[in-house]
Amino acid sequence: MQASRPARVVTPNDSQVSGDNLKVKFIMDTVKKSEERSSKNKSYKVLVDGNKFEFNKSVVTGEEILIKIGKTPPECHTLYQKLKGCEFEKISIDEVVDLANPGIERFTVKPPEVFHYTLDEEPETTDSKSLSANQILQNGGIEPVEDYYLIEIDNSGSEISHKDNPGAPIEMKCPGSKFVSVFRGEMPVS
Predict the structure, then answer these.
(1) What pLDDT band is residue 102 in, cutting at 50, 70 and 90?
(2) Cα–Cα distance for residue pair 3/51, rounded to 1 Å
(3) What is the pLDDT of residue 34?
(4) Are 107 and 46 in contact (CB under 8 A)?
(5) What is the DSSP letter of 73?
(6) Model-level pTM?
(7) Three-state DSSP class for 54?
(8) Where are the alpha helices (DSSP H) in the chain?
(9) Residue that wins the pLDDT comparison between 11 and 108
(10) Which of 49, 97, 137, 162 has CB 3.0 to 4.6 Å from 142, enough for a Cys bridge?
(11) Are 105 and 99 in contact, with CB atoms under 8 Å apart?
């Protein structure tokens, strides 16, 4: 009668495998490859303002969600995640969201909460959706506002004068609007 050999433990890194152990290694490798493929093909669904979108990774940032749904530049939009009930949580651009939780994550997008603009190439911010020319001048520290008027430079480089209507509302834009102050009177000569 022959003595039986002790069982050999097979690990995925074994290079010398034979017989039944070869079958075990083949099965282990097949399962591992299947799991890798499965995780690569896994998609994570989100619902944004009623529209479905898919991601192929479980962890994304607020910026990635906004870009995926076509809301660019991302800083011109505010993303909120719908929680249980009627509550919403603001998701900042660099905040990480885990989509691996059971169910579909739901989001909504709103206009920006803060608008950035420049006055005479100096950065300014406001939480107002519109400001008058006089308010923009005053917020920029240009006084007396009666001695100045405002020129808006649009995205194409065209100039829009707010000289004749300094109290009319100007809609703030994103990305930021550009304004230039212009002195109304004559410059003193020395």
Answers:
(1) confident
(2) 68
(3) 45
(4) yes
(5) S
(6) 0.66
(7) strand
(8) 19-41, 62-68, 133-139
(9) 108
(10) 137
(11) yes
Give the SS3 label for residue 41: helix
Q: Report the run of H or E that residue 110 belongs to, with start and end.
A: strand 105-110
Q: What are the structural domains of the chain?
A: 44-110 (3.10.20.90), 115-183 (3.10.20.30)
Rounded-to-integer distance, Cα 136 and Cα 68, Å: 34
Q: What single letter denotes the amino acid at residue 141?
A: G
Is residue 112 within 8 A of residue 98, CB to CB? The reply is: no
Pairwise CA distance, residues 21 & 76, whole Å: 60
The pLDDT > 90 percentage for the chain reads 68
The token pair at 178 is 């550009």
Higher-pLDDT residue of 20 and 16 is 20
Of 106, 116, 46, 128, residue with least CA distance to 75: 116
* Cβ–Cβ < 8 Å for 67, 74: yes
Pairing of strands 115-119, 177-183: parallel
Torsions phi, psi of 33, nearest 5? Answer: -65, -40
Torsion (CA) 35, 39, 43, 45 in degrees, nearest 10: 100
DSSP 116-155: EEEETTEEEEES-SEEEHHHHHHHTT--SGGGEEEEEE-T
Check if the beta carbon of residue 133 is closer than 8 Å to that of residue 168. Answer: yes
pLDDT (tens digit per residue) in 122-135: 999 999 999 999 99
